[in-house]
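Action item from last meeting closed. Structure (377 res):
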């Protein structure tokens, strides 16, 4: 099988020729990613190209909040932070973030009070229509050596990031209808944007971020239906109708929403974090929804950055043993590498991750054969 066929077979919850191994956030064919410009990352990118099953991201202009609106930026504190000001019909809203490409955090959130909320809601809609030529060229160049992939935030993901986490949680409890109105406005524009991509861009795996913000501990699971299911289920249907694929990106606690996520109809779920970061062991995820979607996970990025090679080997063994039997599993890391300069220690652990994945993946295949389990392996 080609890399693309292998990944798509796993996403179809079937057994490919071997267990796919992908290095989440390590994209050897994406020259626009900041890691591609770092000499310390080049050995990892080269290794991933030759020995893993990579996703191939393409990211196009999305405007801001999936619309066109006048926006101004300026550097602060010697370039350590950047201020973004969005001009709305009711006045401006401003956000301040750090400028590190590796780990971004927000110093000032866009929305501080009721007036800011009304300013956000007043933003008019002007469709965003980016040039898809670069994405189509990447698809042609990569061919069967990877799976085209693009990440999007849904309406919840956009709206939650406008507030501090505390303010967002309080407003969900006290002003839920206002939050729902904001989420609906963003999602309406997102649907139009994605429809354009589906009509003109490459067939891809769409990674949908945002659902984790309607899970514990930020919000109780009851919000998941109103904030996520209502909007993301039609989005996933739209993606499928155009012959592409969808995955849900949801860190943290899955126990209260796991079946709800499966009900959305995605092809995959990432990263299915094990306790204590999550609250559902991988074997239980497999038991509860493994026949409905592909599990993509679940070795922690922290294990690769601070752990020893024997730790990585053990974590991979645990993940493969729980997730691989029966297919529908892609061995993956839970997050992208965030060291601005990749250390030799982390590079060695990435290589160990792949080698261990191959070793234990082959062992599971042999185990299935000896036990008489039928499949395509």
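Sequence:
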């Amino acid at each position: 099988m080609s890399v693309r066929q292998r990944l798509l077979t796993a996403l179809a919850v079937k057994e490919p020729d071997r267990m796919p191994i992908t290095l989440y956030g390590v994209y050897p064919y994406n020259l626009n990613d900041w890691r591609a410009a770092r000499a310390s990352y080049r050995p990892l990118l080269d290794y991933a190209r030759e020995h893993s099953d990579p996703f191939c991201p393409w990211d196009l202009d999305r405007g801001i909040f999936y619309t066109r609106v006048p926006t101004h930026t300026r550097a602060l504190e010697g370039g350590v932070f950047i201020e973004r000001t969005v001009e709305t019909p009711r006045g401006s809203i401003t956000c301040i973030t750090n400028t590190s490409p590796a780990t971004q955090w927000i110093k000032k959130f866009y929305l501080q009070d009721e007036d800011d909320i009304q300013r956000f809601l007043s933003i008019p809609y002007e469709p965003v229509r980016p040039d898809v030529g670069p994405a189509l060229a990447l698809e042609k160049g990569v061919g069967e050596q990877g799976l085209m992939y693009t990440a999007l935030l849904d309406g919840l993901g956009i709206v939650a990031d406008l507030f501090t986490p505390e303010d967002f949680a309080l407003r969900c409890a006290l002003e839920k209808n206002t939050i729902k109105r904001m989420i609906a406005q963003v999602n309406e524009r997102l649907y139009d944007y994605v429809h354009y991509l589906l009509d003109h861009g490459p067939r891809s795996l769409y990674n949908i971020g945002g659902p984790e913000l309607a899970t514990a501990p930020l919000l109780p699971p009851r919000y998941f239906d109103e904030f996520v299911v209502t909007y993301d289920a039609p989005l996933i249907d739209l993606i499928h109708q155009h012959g592409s694929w969808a995955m849900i990106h949801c860190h943290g606690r899955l126990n209260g929403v796991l079946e709800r996520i499966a009900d959305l109809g995605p092809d995959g779920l990432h990263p299915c974090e094990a306790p204590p970061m999550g609250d559902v062991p991988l074997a239980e995820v497999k038991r509860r929804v493994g026949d409905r979607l592909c599990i993509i996970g679940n070795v922690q990025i922290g294990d690769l950055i601070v752990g020893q090679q024997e730790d990585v080997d053990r974590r991979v063994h645990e993940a493969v043993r729980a997730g691989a039997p029966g297919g529908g599993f892609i061995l993956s890391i839970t997050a992208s590498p965030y060291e601005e300069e990749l250390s030799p220690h982390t590079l060695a652990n990435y290589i160990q991750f792949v080698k261990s994945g191959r070793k234990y993946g082959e062992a599971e295949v042999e185990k299935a054969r000896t036990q008489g389990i039928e499949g395509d392996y």
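Note appended to the action item: Residues 344-370 form the longest helix (27 residues).
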